[in-house]
Structure to design on (41 residues):
């Protein structure tokens, strides 16, 4: 379980970095939508 949490944390950091660094605003909005969906579920 701990291993999976670390993996998810890494994936989340990569996605968050993608939001901050994404040159394409549409991509940023898609990632934000995915994050919101994950938070709501």
């Amino acid at each position: 379980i701990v291993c999976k949490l670390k993996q998810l944390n890494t994936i989340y950091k990569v996605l968050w970095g993608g939001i901050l660094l994404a040159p394409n605003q549409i991509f940023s909005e898609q990632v934000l939508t995915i994050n919101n969906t994950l938070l709501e579920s």
Summary: The two ends are 19 Å apart (CA to CA). The chain has one domain: 2-40.
